[in-house]
Amino acid sequence: MFESMIAKYYCRIHESLAQDIHGLHFYNPIGLASGFDKNAEIVRPLASLGFGYLELGSVTQMPQEGNEKPRMFRHVEEESLQNAMGFNNIGARGMLAHLKEVYPFCIPLGINIGKNKNIVQGDSLKNYELSLDTLKDYGDYFAFNLSSPNTPGLRDLQNESFVADLINMAKGVTNKPIFIKISPDMEIDSMLTVCDSAIKHGVSGIIATNTSIDYTLVSHPAKRNEQCFGGISGKALTSRSREILKILGQNFHKKTTLISVGGICDSNEVYERIKLGANLVQILSSMVYEGPTIIARMSNELAEKLKADGFNHINDAIGVAVQ
Ligand SMILES: Cc1cc2nc3c(=O)[nH]c(=O)nc-3n(C[C@H](O)[C@H](O)[C@H](O)COP(=O)(O)O)c2cc1C
């Protein structure tokens, strides 16, 4: 009841923002990035804020506690966060119980799958497979997280051969869209090779990017035992994430779906990402700093900006700045 009152206020339909992608209807392109609702606990309240879709998780096959606290820090002046959560979550079966209460849902629900910390690297594929198999009927798309800096060895899975195995495995389990989520810290050549491999094997799209371990992005990074740790998100990540999208747009615009995430703090940045080739965007840190009204504001202003620039529909603007 309370949620529907909020939704009436925040969920404005702008026909110019609606897209059908991989058989899913997105009434606007602004999604929640994974990490905010790791266990699918607050799906209805989040949707009432005006998101076009939600990416839930990361979930792992078995429940796990995550890293020791403190594991989340604010860099207020830089409107940025540093987190080392480490996939604290209730596990795929726990999430499934929550999803059964809401699924199918009024907006697309993506499920972001991570890997348990305590398994040997050689069992990674099986670990992803078991989670996907548990959740396959209760999500609209699935994203494999290969890029959290907080699970040792996870980023090593961003290689051509693992990505090929992962997509092949996923295609054997479900016909639903499959995405991979990549790091902002890869060498550009390796990033392109991994994305190429994913596309060749039938991935639906690339989500870029996760948090960064470049601690020069903030002036006073948090340390444990004298070592910087965790990943940086928010405004400090804006230009890096935008640069990566630019390169992905140059190489893969129209070849795959691009979802841009990282330091998207206002409607100007949403619009920039769309023009650089993003079909959809996601936010997390800017919601922490700006509050929950940011989603409706971003989508209302995006609709106005498109109109002011003479675009009848978002599809006409996607990729116009790809060079
Ligand atoms: C507290 C926190 C937890 C996160 N947890 C996850 C996660 O579980 N899985 C994942 O793929 N990304 C996770 N992320 C990364 C975000 O999804 C996103 O890629 C990153 O924060 C950049 O976007 P932003 O600048 O809008 O926050 C997390 C980020 C934060 C700040």
Automatic annotation (TrEMBL):
The keyword Transcription does not apply. Transmembrane segments: none annotated. It is an enzyme of class 1 (oxidoreductase). It is found in: Membrane. Residues 17-306 form the Dihydroorotate dehydrogenase catalytic domain. It catalyses: (S)-dihydroorotate + a quinone = orotate + a quinol. Pathway: Pyrimidine metabolism; UMP biosynthesis via de novo pathway; orotate from (S)-dihydroorotate (quinone route): step 1/1. Its main location: membrane. It comes from the Bacteria. This is Dihydroorotate dehydrogenase (quinone).
